[in-house]
Amino acid sequence: MSRARKWLGNAGVVLALIAGLAVWTMLPWFAVLALVVALVLWLLLTRNGRLTLEAARIGIASLPQRWGASSVIVVGIAGVVGVLVAMLAMGAGFEATLKQTGNDSTAIILRGGSQAETNSVITRDQVPLVSALAGIARGADGRPAVSPELSQVVNMVTRADHTDANAQLRGVGDAAWALRPQVKIVEGRRFEPGKRELVIGQGARKQYVDQQFNDLKPGTQIELANQVWTVVGFFASGDSHDSELWADAETLASTYRRTAYQSITVRLDGKDGFNKLKAAMAADPRLKLDVDTTRHYYAKQSEQLSGFLKVLGIVIGAIMAVGAVFGALNTMYAAVAGRAREIATMRAIGFRGLPVVVAVMLETMLLALIGGLIGGLIAWLVFNGYSVSTLGNNFSQVMFQFKVSPDLLWNGIKWALGIGLVGGLFPALRAARLPVTEALRAA
């Protein structure tokens, strides 16, 4: 009967622990701060709280004597937090890069049902029809702010291992520069219409070299489609365009024998410009096209990969967390066994079960916090701003930087404290249940 009652009690603790961890992971910072304030007030203003502080002080004072065992908790949790934050920072960086590319004042038009530019086709006779639609703003010259563009995937040699990788070559005209004022030439000049000249984004410049494995610079010649192209400048945009190569649209079309465009980017006329444009396009049966704001379009491009990286990071972090929990359990069980006489003595002089439980938990949570801070710091120092590339929805490389944000660090700390909670709870309960007379005799 007593064994069944004990089993049911442990099962209840496990269920309560699972529910508590689920709630803990969803708590915002201010709710956690409120819990910390409530705990501090309980420790300072109640008798049990003061007894807990005294018991915790004794346990923490003995940490240097068993630092080797305690470091298992710190190192294990630091590894979990470091890997978790790094994986999530990769997804956050990719998502931020694509979200920065668009805005609500411009729209992108693709063939109906197309998910990306590479599988979109817009015929040349559709361009003037689109230009005449309501909702499109006009430039200083009085013409519609419309930029028909080509998207061509080309092979470039990577700097890292000198293998071929897909790069996006965008064919544009003068309107593209006006529609994207964030794109600035930082070295050299723009390409001239009618010439096989390239301007290259700063991200692509870091990623690629020429066919002789030399760095890209003004005057570098690159062979594309059996034609020699000359690099005449480099631009910076702070978004996914940094990963692209730009050239004159008509020259690109003649080189690759392209008779159609892949997309049209337009500037919207006021806040209701998008709705007007969408309605006007739907009303014209000659236009089987879709329109979306550039902000929403590029945000959708990041959803699949960033979501995958988030799930992967959580899965890997959870697997590592299980190992860290077992390490914490072994360490704290050993600590409780080694301090059996000390704990029994405290129980004998009036320390009740609750102060003992909370004291052991505070000790474990302190080690978990140290591990979480170390793991977060390592992730920030090593990965924040680290540049990588991945294959985007246009089947071309997109350069982006890891982004270790305060939110990710905060999530890492919450994971660390959650591991500490699980790893310290059962040893703490064992300490509270330790029979006083048996512990004193064994000692």
From TrEMBL:
Domain MacB-like periplasmic core: 72-282
One Pfam family matching this protein: FtsX
Subcellular localization(s) per the UniProt record: Cell membrane
Keyword ATP-binding: no
Main localisation: membrane
Transmembrane segments: 7-23, 29-46, 67-90, 311-336, 356-383, 408-429
Membrane topology: Multi-pass membrane protein
UniProtKB keywords: Cell membrane, Membrane, Transmembrane, Transmembrane helix
Keyword Transmembrane helix tagged: yes
Domain ABC3 transporter permease C-terminal residues, every copy: 314-435
Protein name: ABC transporter permease
Organism lineage: Bacteria, Pseudomonadati, Pseudomonadota, Gammaproteobacteria, Lysobacterales
